[in-house]
Amino acid sequence: MKRAQSEALYKKALNYFPGGVNSPVRAFRSVGGSPLFIEKGDGCHVQDADGNEFVDFCCSWGPLILGHNHPGVREEIFTAVALGTSFGAPTRKENELAELILQHNHFIEKIRFVSSGTEAVMSALRLARGFTGKPVIIKFEGCYHGHVDSLLVKAGSGLSTFGISSSAGVTEAVAKDTLVLPLNDKRALDIAISDFAHDIAAIIIEPIPANNGLMLQDKSFLEYLRKVTAENNILLIFDEVISGFRVGFEGASGYYNIQPDIITYGKIIGGGMPVGAYGARKELMSHIAPEGNVYQAGTLSGNPVAMSAGIAQLRECLKPGFYESLAQKTSVFTSQLNTYSKSKGYLFKVFSIGSIFWFAFTEKEKISSSEEISTESMKYFRILHAELLERGIYLGPSGYEVGFVSAAHSAEILKEAASKICEALDAVFVALPEGISKV
What we know:
The protein is of the alpha/beta class. It has two domains: 178 residues, Aspartate Aminotransferase, domain 1 (Alpha-Beta Complex), CATH 3.90.1150; 247 residues, Type I PLP-dependent aspartate aminotransferase-like (Major domain) (Aspartate Aminotransferase, domain 2, 3-Layer(aba) Sandwich), CATH 3.40.640.10. Helices cover 36% and strands 15% of the residues. It contains 13 helices and 16 strands. A seven-stranded mixed sheet has the order 4-12-11-10-9-5-8, sandwiched between helices. Strand 2 and strand 3 form a beta hairpin. Helix 6 packs parallel to helix 7. It is globular, with a radius of gyration of 22 Å. The relative contact order is 0.15.
C-alpha cells in the first residue's frame, strides 16, 4: 500500500491545523501512522491521494446512506449552486425538506434547521431549559452529543453526583449543571430523579448509542426513561444525529415506537452537506425565537445547497423497501463475519442494528454500557485496521467507532469485503500472544 502522498500532505497539514486535522477523530493516533488523505469517492469506494482504492464503511461517519457521489444528489447540488450558494434569507428548499420530513415522521410537528449535529443538541438543551425553567440536564456515560460544553463531562464519584469536565476549557460552573449516569441502569436513574427532580430540565440519550461502540439498549430501559420523565415533568431528548433516518425514516423513535419530547438530527438529512436539525411538538417549538423567547440563530441555517442535497437523498430513502434492503444486506454481511469468527474460536463479534455495525473484540453477546468495553481490546483493533487497509477496506480509525453499510454496497461487494475481513482477522490473531485468540 502506497502512502507517500498522504504522508507528505499530513506533514504539511501539521503546519496549518492542530494535530494536522480539522476534527480529532480523523487522526490515526489510536491506530498508528498518518491519516489517509481522500481524493474522491464513488459508490461504496474511496480513493486516496496515492491512488489506493478502498471499500468504504465509514461513509463520512454516516451521512452517505446512498454512497459517495450519488448522481441524483450531485445533480441537485449542481442545480442549487448555479442559483447561488447562500442568501441568509428564506428559500423554497427549506420548505420542501421540512415538508418531506414532517409528512413522513409523526414524532415531530415542527423543525428548525441548523448547521451541525452539535448545534442541534446545543439548541435542544437551551429549548428544554427555557421551556421548563430548570437548569439541570442528565446524560449517560458513553453517549456522545457533540462538543457542547455542558455535555463534555464525565461521571463524578457517586451514583447521583454532578459531572466533572472531560475537556479543558469546560468550566466547573458549566459542568455542575449536568448529571452523568450509567447506561441501562434504572436504579441510578431513580436515585438521580429522587435527589434532583425539581431541577432537571431534560434527560438526553442516544437511543442507539453509536459513538462509543454500539451499545444497544434494552427497549424496556428506553420505555422506563419515557415513563419517569413524563411523571416528573422532565423532557426526554433523543439524540438521533446518527440513528435518525439510518435505522428507518423515523429513526430510533420509530424503531422502538417511543415518543420523545425533542429529537435532534443531522448527517443523513444533508445528503453529505453540513446540516443539523431539532424538532418537537408545536407547543414546544413555539418557544423558539422569533415566536418565543428561546433565542437561536444561524447565518447558514437552512442553506439551500444542503437542503437540496437532503431532499434528493431522503426521496431515495422513502422508496419502498429501501431500509429493509439495507438491513438485510447488513445482516448477511455481519452474519458471515460472526460465523467465521465463531468457527475459529476468535474473541471477536460484530454487533449491528439496521445498517450500523461495530467490530468488537469480546466474548460478550451484548454490550450495553461503556464499562463493558475492554480498553485492552483496542490494541487488537489497531492491528485489524492496518490489515484491512492493506486489503482495501476502510473503517474509521478507532475501535470505538461504528461502521455503516450504504445502498451502494452491493451483495457481491459485501461478500468479497467479508472474505477480506476474515483474512485480516486471521492475521490479527496470529500476531497475538499464544492463547489470546480463543474464547
